[in-house]
Amino acid sequence: MSKIRFSSDILKRLGEELNPGIDKSILELVKNSYDADAENCIISLEKEQKTTSFTLTIEDDGYGMTSKEINDGWLVLGHSQKTKNKTPKGRIPAGSKGLGRLAALRMGSSVYLSTASITNPSINYNLTINWDDYDKQNLVDDVELEIKEQDNVSKKNGTIIRIQNIQQSFGYNEIKKLARELILLSDPFGDNPTGFNPIFKSDAFKDLEDLVKNRYFDEATYHVIAELKSSSEYHINVKDWKNEDLFVTDSLLSNSYETVPIRFELWIFVLNSTTFVNRNITITDIRNWLKEFGGVSIYQNNIRVAPYGDEGNDWLDINLQRAKSPEERPSTNTVIGRVIIEDKEELLKPKTDRSGFIENETFDELKRFCKDVLDWVAKERLEVAERRRQKERTEAPKDSDAKKEKVIELFKPENFDLEKTKIAFSEYEKAKQKEIETLKKDLLLYRTLSTAGIEAATFAHEMQTEHIKNIYLYKTSINNTVSRHVESPYKEKLLKQLQKLDFSLTALNIPSEATLSIIRHEKRKIEKVDVQSVVVSIVSSFSEFYKTKNTKVIVNQIDSSLCIFGTISSIECIIINLITNALTALEKNESDEKLVEINFDIIDSKTFSIIVSDNGNGIEDINVNDIWLPGQTTKQNGTGLGLTIVRDTVKDLYGTCSVISKGKLGGADFIIILPRIV
Amino acid sequence: MVVHLIDDSKDSREGFKDLFDDIDLKSNILNKLESDLTKQLSQFSADDFIISDFKLQNHSNNYSKYNGDIIIAEAYKNHIPGILCSSIVSNDLGLSRVLRRYIPKIIRTQELSNELYSPEYIIKTKELICNEFDNNFSKQRRPWRALLRTTDYDVEHKTVYVEIPSWKPDAKLSISLSDFPKNIQKNVMHETYRFHAIVNLDCENDQDLYIDKIEEK
User: Fold this and answer.
1) Residue B3 in contact with residue B101, Cβ under 8 Å?
2) Region of residue A571 (left: phi > 0; alpha: psi -120 to 50; beta: else)
3) Would you give the DSSP letter of residue A616?
């Protein structure tokens, strides 16, 4: 009887050709440990003495193998032991057909295997493969391997594989990839009792060893824990780095989420030098760690589901939200998180190509819950930041003034003391610096807006000087031609269309024209400003535009002088933003009579009010207290900055602003109170 | 009568021409202006009419060395009638109040309509301007000697702010420092400097207000 036999060269070729890279080869061996239900797996990569070679050792505490299992499984290449059945610890086998293992084992000149099975841990089986023996023989079968049996003194089950004399050089990036894969294969959060814990040891790649070992969760500034127990029962808690509760809620925008029970945890890191000043680790450590493991992963029944949380997979649009509203929003580079899904009924179905879940309603609802949690956290953080910002805005100038007084006092001849003056001056300088820092934060926000403003003004100017003029010219010319030369019924039809064009042209022209008017430099001059005339003038310059919005804007002046000490642009800024806000609110109002009313009232000899009311539906879908916060908007693609600007501008004028969600016309009433000068 | 069309945009010049062709008015497109203004003006006659855009240097086509306000004002001084027609014409954008005295009519492009662009309208406007050549002003344009008072000076933009008590006492008007005679420029940089000038005090809109012949005392 004849049989196919294999040349010993085939082992060499298979080993070389199947080697997808050192990281992947090593990972294949680690996956065998994972499949053997090991909890600990130590991967050591050591440089051999007096040579340039390495030795790789993989040691685990898994089920181990018997002599038969070595013979019928481990030594059989191409035969997959992988089954669809989960391991006793509930893991889905991750290893492949043993060809990857061959590639790994062929990295060195010899392999040593030592294993003790859980079925009889007192016996240890070991085996050595010298690849040189194969090179000397013609056929694979010609090399005899001996499995030796020894007493296992420790009586602990597990397997050791040692590959010696590895000639290949290990690239830093390959090892880095391995480090990342090792962590993601297991449980990067380290709190799963059935978790797999790979430990990477290497003197040559000490920093990567740390990357695998270290977990920086304790360094997070915020830890969000959101539990959805049933569709309408959920609880969200944000803790600080001391593990103390910061914000808690049982109420999000939506009352129910029709999905599986989940636990969403997110660690948010505020990576700035101030927050890290007294810590033992550096921002770079955390940044490097997050760079590898940041993002939000999904674990379904304890198994990680790729590609959620992989590099470039921002399934919760964390970066998009940050780009839209940068304040107090994390990016995937500053968070690590997981969504643990308990899905006994398997309502979340994997795609056939294993690239995540089919995006059914259950998955969409899961996503919606997580996004709502992120929105809520951002809003809570924003509120805290805003309170701090407002406090700093008020207190910084006061503090700096007090310090200045102290300096002035010390400059008096009777008080003069050089040392004390030096200290006082330094304190004054610090206070002033703090004031500047506060203003810098404002500047950052307004710089973003001014960029948009410059773009709008440039566009407006370009439109005004040429394009709009030409449209008017040609429209008029067409109108003339139609009137004179076209017969009915086309004449009427065309004239009607031209009339509609005129309407749209007005809508286009007025904002362009008004944009240019707003930026006039003399409007930023600080002087006595007659508020009523500024309001009348700005409303009049936009009046044609309001018509295109089917909205009547009425200014009810009173017969008294209402002047402030400030700038025309500040009043224009308040009014334009409030009217724009009202126009947005009125978009939802289907009534034909859309109305915005501006009223003035004298409160007392020192103050007066401007009240902007509309007949919309009032403030909906947003908390009344939140409307002033930057980034809060109910309008799609809105910046959510208009009312923040109103509030800041009013504050700069030493005034106050408030809102009534259902005012006198049915919509919101915005009340601005300003100090009056005579 | 020929309507001369001045605009640094070719499309706009052609647009204007179409408009006048429609109403059977003879028009002449000026595809490039003479660098010497006097030479340019010599090509127009008192019977003609000029329609010019305000800013003529927006395009990098070397269309003109001077803007439309200069052309219309100089033409006016030579008794050649003309108007400015532009989408943006305002003293905030560089239109001098001193020159405004010699630019009796400004049409914003947005105001163009069939009614306005009739031969009658052009003829009526031409008549109105020619009347001014004979010192026969409309109420809004009639010149008066008035007292002006400086209120402020903007160093950055070299702009003097003035009040005209006999016009609107609370209104502040801006005048470029360079519009003042050289020997009083230092004085007007200070608050409450008083001087006399010719102003159309019956004018209602501050964009139409002119300040001419500023007296040096």
Assistant:
1) no
2) alpha
3) S
Contacts of B173 in chain A (CB under 8 A): none
Instruction: State both tokens at A637.
Output: 């693609």
CA–CA separation, B95 and B90 (whole Å): 6
CA atoms within 13 A on the CB side of B181: 11
Q: Which of residues 35-54 of B touch A (CB under 8 A)?
A: none
Residue A124 CA to residue B111 CA, distance in Å, equals: 99
Query: Buried b / exposed e across B162-189, counting CB within 10 Å, b at 16+?
Result: bbbeebeeeebbbbebebbeeeeeeebb
User: What phi and psi values does residue A192 have, to the nearest 5 degrees?
Assistant: -95, 120
- Helix A361-411 / helix A418-462 crossing angle, nearest 10 deg: 130
Query: What are the residues facing A126 on neighbouring strands?
Result: A114, A148
- Write the pLDDT tens digit of every residue in A222-271: 999 999 998 889 999 999 878 888 889 888 767 789 999 999 999 998 88
Six token digits for residue A388? 């701090």
Q: Residue B187's pLDDT band (boundaries 50, 70, 90)?
A: very high
What average pLDDT does the segment B34-49 reach?
94
Per-residue pLDDT, averaged over A208-214, amounts to: 66
Three-state secondary structure call for residue A334 = coil
Decide if B166 contacts B129 (C-beta within 8 A).
no
Which chain A residues are closer than 8 Å to B15 by Cβ?
A: 470, 473-474, 477
Distance, CA of B80 to CA of B1 (rounded, Å): 12
The model's pTM is 0.52
Please work out, in degrees rounded to the nearest 5, the angle formed at the alpha carbon of residue A209 by the alpha carbons of A208 and A215: 95
Q: Per-residue pLDDT tens for A402-452? A: 888 888 888 888 877 888 888 888 888 888 888 888 778 777 767 777 777
Quick check: A468 contacting B, CB < 8 Å? yes
Q: Report the alpha-carbon angle A601-A605-A608, nearest 5.
A: 30
Q: CA-CA distance, B110 to A473, in Å (whole number)?
A: 9
DSSP designation for A116? E
Nearest-Cα residue of chain B relative to residue A523: B92
Q: A391: exposed, middle or buried (C-beta count within 10 Å: 0-12, 13-18, 19+)?
A: exposed
The interface pTM score, or ipTM, of the predicted complex is 0.79
Closest in B9, B93, B110 to A466, CB measured: B9
Is some CB atom of chain B closer than 8 A to the CB atom of A485? no
The per-residue pLDDT of chain A, averaged, comes to 83
Tell me the CA distances in angstroms from A342 to A333, A348, A366, A675, B208, one per residue in order. Answer: 27, 10, 12, 59, 75
Tokens read off for A623: 């908390």
Name the token pair of A53.
């070679």
d(CA A325, CA A255): 25
Is the per-residue pLDDT at A628 higher than 70?
Answer: yes
